[in-house]
Amino acid sequence: MTKDKERDISCKKYYMQRIIIGAIVLIAGILLNFAESAADLTKVLFDLPWFIGIIGVAFLGIGFAGFRKSRPEDVIHLSPQRTHDFLLNNAIILALAVLVVIICFKEHSFMQIKVLKDILAQASPRVIIALGVCFTLLIAGTDLSAGRMVGLSAVISASMMQTAEYANRFFPDLPQITPLIPIILGIIACILFGALNGFLVARFDMHPFVATLATQVMIYGACSLYFDMPPNNSQPIGGIRPDFALIGQKRLLQWDWFKDLPIIGKLFANISVLIPIAIVFIIVIWFVLNKTVFGKNVYAIGGNREAAVVSGINVFATIMGIFILASALYGVGGVLEAARTAGATNNYGVGYELDAIAACVVGGVSLNGGVGKVSGILSGVLIFQVIQYGLQFIGISPMWQQIIKGIIIAVAVAIDMSKYRKK
Question: Which residues of 113-136 are buried (b: 16+ CB within 10 A; e: fewer)?
């Protein structure tokens, strides 16, 4: 690295450049939108002008926020090493961007706002599950029982939410109760197993991999026994009541006058109720991790458990809290999945824990503990959801999808380990 390749730039100037880039991109999107309307290119460009405009607004937001916070004396050091680190840390996101461009070229209809809404809706339960797994990864652990807890919660909640007219009811004599009761029961069942996970790890210092593996097997057995109870006898649970299915299938802002609004209607009309539900959990978990003593203790234990003990942190209570909170999030994810698909079986949630772990790692949560952000988890889940949805959209074989997903996981872990070695 030579000195002539390094330079300092004022923060004000740096963020002003972002503002200018954002303004140019936004104007390009607006002009392209008018050109599309004038030349009737809707079936070619679809919603591409909207996406370009959204990117422009994002650049403007970043630029204005940085410009407002920076002081005149603040500078940013630019160097080849800084560029290298940026490309390394964002390699997965950049690869995803290239993949999205390729998909859009192959199938133009992928460039639609409704496609983005579908991706966000499908990713919403996965985000909540990944937020739970994140807590266990932050203490350099893991949770292999997450997927089975999703299935347990789905089966319990769905089994009590069948219509009275359904021929093969799980509980034939059960009255039509409020959906809140089975939802709570499904989550409580997960919390009990989560408490068992936490107790094994905190009391016996058992490695989370082994503890949650044992619990995973127990949960599947318990769920299968419940699912096999007569008169159901392991039949898929169907005939779900509409008031329960609405939790996962309801579309918001469907009024005609709202749909006709120029920008807001385009972006927010017919949006799945799962998306605002996920946003609420994202905000709550961000607050827990960043603004509470419990959250700071989680990072402290993950960073250095011995130092956390010396500093007076109640490690036993914190670990118990981690696994209980994580299991509650799995329970919520299971309820939402049962409502979204209007059914359940004892095999629901299979592999969800691996997808959640992979999404967290790709999003920057370190396997060595103590490092991770909610924003990174969100990006990791979206990356995998876009890959899955996009490759299905253009008809790529599911086997190739698994290969691509595996490559991404291996690269993400390699990047994480290289950063750990540097530290």
Answer: bebbbebbbbbbbbbbbbbbbbbb
